[in-house]
Design goal:
Helix content: over 70%
Largest sheet: none
Strand content: under 5%
Mean pLDDT: 86
Distance between the termini: 53 Å
Number of strands: 0
Oligomer: single chain
Order of helices and strands: HHHHHH
Number of helices: 6
Structural class: mainly alpha
Amino acid sequence: LFSVSVNSLLVYFLRNTIAYRDHVWRYFWFFFAVVYCFLSLDEAACLHEIIDQSTSLKWVFLYAPFFGIFFLVCSYYLLVLYKGDKKIRNSILGGLTIYVFGALVSEFISYLLYPLPACYQQVEFVLEEGFELVGTIIVLVSILQELNRLYALQLLRTSTHTKLPESGGKS
């Protein structure tokens, strides 16, 4: 999750050096990086478990509206505004969908069917964490591909702006 955040931040900086400086959606990748940084912090510090233990409100019901807004913003940006590779766009959306499915849907099922027998709790835990990891890996690979694409554009842009020195004699 943290590597997705760091690489999204790199995408943000690289996109802003190439273009999009005056576009209102230029902050999308920064916003994306901040959300994934929070998710990383949440996993590392077990914040959602602390919320479950310290309040009567389950973390799923607290996080679900934010996940929904985040997913809608990402979907709008990637489907409507993003002009890059469609495979990258679809992979990011697919990875987000898999992650949200693992994080929220598995938790909702376990809360609705609570208390689950111990063997089913273990299966639910493995499925939940598995979906989260697979979704995160898909998003990470997609963002690394976007970084590669942007870096290639940056190289192309700088190579067309630099003039080659004229040779004084025969080569």
